[in-house]
C-alpha cells in the first residue's frame, strides 16, 4: 500500500491523543448545550446558539411583510433611521423586534437606544425623539403591491 511502511501508521496521518479527543467532545457538548438552551428559550438573543426565527419560514405569495425600525430626530434637526446593531446604537434589531409589545406599553424603553448611540458616537448629533415604526409591505401573487405603509407604534422624548 502506498504511504504505509511496515509496522507504522500511514505516512502523513497523525493519531489524536486522549486530550485532543476529550477536548473535541467537550467543545461539542458545550455547543449542543448552548444550542438547546437557546432553542428552549426560543429567542434570538443567544444567536448563533439559538433560533434565528425571522428566517424560519417562507412568505406566501399573498401576504403582508412587516419590518420594525426606529427613527430618530436629532439635535441637529435631521431625521434618521437608527442603525440597530451593536456598532450603531448598541441594540440589535432582533432585540427591538422581540420587545415590540413591551416598548409599545412602555416607550421609555427606547431611552436605551438613545443612550447607546450617545455613548458609542459622542461626536455625532444626539437623538432627541425616537419613534418605533412598523412598515408593512403587501404582496399580491408574490409581487409588491404599492409602497409600504408606516405605522408609528411608540414615541419617546429622549431624556438628557
Care to describe what's here?
This protein has 4 helices and 5 strands; from the N terminus they run H-E-E-H-H-H-E-E-E. The chain has helices at residues 18-41, 93-98, 100-105, 111-120; strands at residues 64-74, 79-81, 127-140, 143-144, 149-157. The radius of gyration is 25 Å and the shape is extended.
Global outline:
extended
Query: Main β-sheet: number of strands, strand sense, barrel status?
Result: 5 strands, antiparallel
Number of helices: 4
Helix content: 25-40%
* Quaternary structure classification: single chain
Give the termini separation: 77 Å
What percentage of the residues does DSSP assign to strands (E)?
15-25%
Low-confidence stretches: none
Structure summary, number of beta strands: 5
State the gist of this model.
With 160 residues, the protein is an alpha+beta fold.
Amino acid at each position: 500500500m502506498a504511504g504505509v511502511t511496515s509496522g507504522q501508521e500511514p505516512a502523513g496521518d497523525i493519531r489524536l491523543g486522549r486530550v485532543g479527543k476529550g477536548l473535541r467532545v467537550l467543545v461539542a457538548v458545550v455547543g449542543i448545550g448552548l444550542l438547546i438552551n437557546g432553542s428552549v428559550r426560543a429567542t434570538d438573543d443567544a444567536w448563533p446558539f439559538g433560533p434565528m426565527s425571522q428566517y424560519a419560514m417562507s412568505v406566501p405569495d399573498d401576504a403582508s411583510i412587516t419590518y420594525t425600525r426606529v427613527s430618530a430626530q436629532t439635535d441637529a434637526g435631521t431625521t434618521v433611521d437608527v442603525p440597530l446593531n451593536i456598532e450603531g446604537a448598541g441594540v440589535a434589531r432582533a432585540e427591538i423586534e422581540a420587545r415590540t409589545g413591551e416598548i409599545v406599553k412602555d416607550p421609555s424603553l427606547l431611552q436605551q437606544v438613545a443612550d447607546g448611540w450617545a455613548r458609542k458616537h459622542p461626536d455625532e448629533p444626539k437623538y432627541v425623539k425616537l419613534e418605533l415604526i412598523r412598515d408593512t409591505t403587501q404582496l399580491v401573487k408574490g409581487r409588491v403591491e404599492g409602497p409600504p405603509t408606516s405605522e408609528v407604534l411608540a414615541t419617546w422624548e429622549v431624556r438628557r
